[in-house]
Structure formats: C-alpha cells, structure tokens
Design goal:
It is a single chain. This protein is an alpha/beta fold. It has one domain (4-141, 183-244): Undecaprenyl pyrophosphate synthetase, CATH 3.40.1180. 40% of the residues lie in helices and 15% in strands. It has helices spanning 23-29, 34-55, 74-97, 113-125, 142-158, 169-173, 221-232, and strands at residues 15-19, 59-66, 100-105, 132-140, 186-189, 208-211. Strands 3-4-2-1-5-6 form a 6-stranded parallel β-sheet, with helices on both faces. The two termini are 27 Å apart. The structure holds 3-methylbut-3-enyl trihydrogen diphosphate (2 copies) and magnesium ion. One 3-methylbut-3-enyl trihydrogen diphosphate (IPE) binds at residues 19-21, 63-66, 69, 193, 195, 197.
C-alpha cells in the first residue's frame, strides 16, 4: 500500500511545524561548501509544501533562519538571504495557483531590504488563499517573540487598557506572532538533532515531536507521510486521562 494511502484523513494534524536542519552536513558529506546544502534545501521545501497541500494539511510552518543564525559567517548569511529572495520570487506564482497563502514571522525589520520587499510582494499576492497557510520563520526566535509579547502587555497595563489581573494564557497567546494559527500538532526536526533551538517554545507545549536523521536537502514527501503516520499512532492526552480526551 502506498504510504499516502496509510494516512487517516480524519486524524490529520492541522498544523505541522518543521525545523529544517542539516544542510551544512549534507554539503560536507559531498565535499562541498555549506551554502551548497542550502541551495539544495529549496527542493525539499517545494516537495513538502506540495505534499502537505495534497494531503489536506492546513498550516505548515518552516524554521528557515533563527535570530542566532545572524552570527554565522557573513558569506553564509548573505547567500542564505539571496537564496530566500530567489526562492520566494520563483515559487510564489505556483504557490498562488495552488491556493497557498504565504506568511512570515520573526524580526522582519532586520532582514535586508530586497528580502523584505520580495516577501511583502509574495504575501500580498497570496493573501486571499486559504487551502494551506505556509509560514516562514525568519530571523525568528521564541524568546525574542515572548519578550515582545511581554513588552506589549506591559504597555497596555501602563496605559490602563488592561489590569495585571487580566493577563492570562489567552491574552499572552494573542500577543504572539502566531495569534491567528492553531498551535502545531506535530513538529518535525531533520538531521538527528534532538532539540528545539528556540523555535515556538510557547506554541509547542503539547505538540507531538518527531525527529528524523534525514538531512533537510534529502527530505521528501515520503518522509512527511512517515511523520504523519507516526503521529497518528500516538495518543495525545493533554494532561488528562485517556477517556476524557475528545479531539
Ligand atoms: C539548516 O541547516 C539551515 C539553517 C539553519 C539556516 P544548517 O545550516 O544548520 O546545517 P547543519 O546543521 O550545520 O548541518
Ligand atoms: C535551527 O537550526 C534553526 C533553523 C533550522 C533555521 P540550527 O542549526 O541553527 O540549530 P542548532 O545551532 O543546531 O541548535
Ligand atoms: Mg544546523
């Protein structure tokens, strides 16, 4: 039986988050520069987006560049930014035809101007689509996001708009950049690293975690299907006991 046919359409994760990792090691295995790995990671994103759209996944969030990644060698950072601009430019017409809406989260003001404008163009082109929402986390880190949320709440308290007693989980979640999305049901990290690296720390509280040794440039639709099948075998309890949980 085809892997895709083993997926239960009634138990699909609504939101899948992905930490795309291992580009540098993939390149090194081939005796190439790290940026060769990033170049080859684009195809993996394409295939994953297509597979998710075909399967009926509603939200995909890719960790593409962390706040901490700015500290990498200058050449790697600028090549990554250029690659991103090219990928957005080349892919956005097809994303649009397929009903995909593109979004970005992170400290977008810190991106180079050509990157910001290309991104803004693709976001507005695809704004009316609703088959699948693809969010790219760029210059993103969860601690940065939570600190910003705390600052915004502090301002609202200081201005008298709200009282400290009104601060609750819902209010804080409403200050995060993911406020319009459900929390991820499934997180996939490639390359065998078993950590979150400052990604969506608040939102992943009850997410199922899936780690695969596959390096990101080798990740293809069959790997996504395997992760979904694994997810569907799990029992999510959210702190309750089995028969209390209604999904
Ligand atoms: C992921 O691959 C891409 C980014 C973090 C931008 P890496 O570049 O981290 O590759 P490894 O983990 O060093 O192999
Ligand atoms: C996480 O990967 C960030 C992205 C995938 C964009 P890193 O390669 O930067 O994470 P660490 O350094 O291994 O934790
Ligand atoms: Mg890495």
């Amino acid at each position: 039986m085809d892997l895709k046919d083993r997926i239960d359409k009634d138990k699909l994760p609504r939101h899948i988050a992905l930490i795309m990792d291992g580009n540098g090691r993939w390149a090194r295995q081939r005796g190439k520069e790290r940026v060769f790995g990033h170049e080859n990671g684009v195809e993996a994103v394409r295939d994953t987006v297509k597979a998710a759209a075909d399967t009926g996944i509603r939200y995909l969030t890719f960790f593409a560049f962390s706040t901490e990644n700015w500290c990498r060698p200058q050449h790697e950072v600028s090549t990554l930014m250029d690659l991103l601009v090219d990928a957005i430019r080349n892919e956005s017409p097809e994303l649009n035809e397929n009903g995909v809406r593109l979004q970005a989260i992170g400290d977008l003001d810190s991106l180079p101007e050509h990157c910001r404008s290309q991104l803004a163009e693709a976001i507005s082109l695809t704004a009316a689509n609703n088959r699948l929402t693809v969010t790219v986390a760029l210059s993103y880190s969860a601690r940065w996001e939570i600190v910003n949320a705390a600052k915004n709440i502090a301002k609202k308290v200081a201005s008298g708009e709200i009282t400290p007693g009104q601060v609750d989980q819902e209010l804080l979640a409403g200050e995060l950049l993911t406020r319009d999305m459900p929390d991820p049901d499934l997180l996939i990290r490639t390359s065998g690293e078993l950590r979150l690296s400052n990604f969506l720390l608040w939102q992943l509280a009850y997410t199922e975690l899936y780690f695969t040794p596959v390096f990101w440039p080798d990740f293809r639709r069959k790997h996504l299907y395997q992760a979904i099948i694994d997810y569907q075998r799990r029992e999510r309890r959210f702190g309750k006991v089995k028969n209390q949980v209604v999904l």
